[in-house]
Amino acid sequence: MTVPQKVVACVLARMSSRRLPGKALAPVAGVPMLERLVHRLRTARTVDEIVICTSTRPDDQVLLEKADIWRVGGYAGSEENVLSRIMDVAERYAATLVLRVTGDNVLTCPAAIDRMVPHHIASGAEYTRTNKLPLGATAEVLSVSILPRLQSLLPHPNENHLMPFAYDPTHFHCEVLEASPDVMRPHYSLTLDTPEDLARMDWIHRECPADSAGPSLERVVALLDEHPDLCRVPADAPICWPGGATMTFGALLELMDERAALARSRNATR
Fold first, then answer.
1. Does residue 135 belong to any structural domain of this protein?
2. Does residue 2 lie in a domain region?
3. DSSP state, 9?
């Protein structure tokens, strides 16, 4: 008998940001960034609920108010312990699968989500991602059952970089889907961390007008292919890593490919 699944998109968002204060509600073509992301996630057929997952800091309470206005769930938990917030949301909303969505990834791809969730369920995966999408376009699918194990792997309870520990085929059954060629641009960045990123995202939405869910990833990539220097990440760019460490962007891409190969090798023998 097939076990019913409940998929909850946990949108991690906070108002504080060293480089772009208040960025969760920063306007992108006249609409708050987080509101655009909510509209976008609503178009994913495999998502049952969307929850704005923020902290108990006073300045984050506005996000709970916005969640009510946008008619989605809202939860405020630990400011520093991101995984505990996800675990609390999973329990409160009776999720069996959670989508880890970063609130500043306004162009998270619903089509990728709708590929990953059925594959995750059919394969019995514990963790699923799409490889080689632009940075900021993918979400991660995690089975709720692995969250306590993931917590035990973190070197510190307040570790914010969860992907290196969850996307680890030596500990979890990881499934990896490849991006289609028309959006396979791992060297492009669509994340929103700085005023320059905000200006670029505003430009993208004005150049690719669409409904409230925003333009398709295919359309965005086609636009950026005409202006690749606007979003290309240099191979030697430093990327934050757990424990306050950094690695180059090129090394990160190599690591992601290595883990994808390891996952496929292990899955071939299951």
1. yes
2. no
3. E
Entry pTM = 0.95
Structural domain range at position 129: 7-268
Q: 163-190 burial, b for 16+ CB within 10 Å, e for fewer?
A: ebbbbbbebbbbbbbebeeebbbbbbbb
User: Is the separation of the CB atoms in 53 and 97 below 8 Å?
Assistant: no
Structural domain count of the chain = 1
pLDDT tens over the chain, length 270 residues: 456 899 999 999 999 888 888 999 999 999 999 999 999 999 999 999 999 999 999 999 999 999 999 999 999 999 999 999 999 999 999 999 999 999 999 999 999 999 999 999 999 999 999 999 999 999 999 999 999 999 999 998 889 899 999 999 999 999 999 999 999 999 999 999 999 999 999 999 999 988 888 999 999 999 999 999 999 999 999 998 998 899 999 999 999 999 999 999 999 998
Does 24 reside within a domain?
Answer: yes
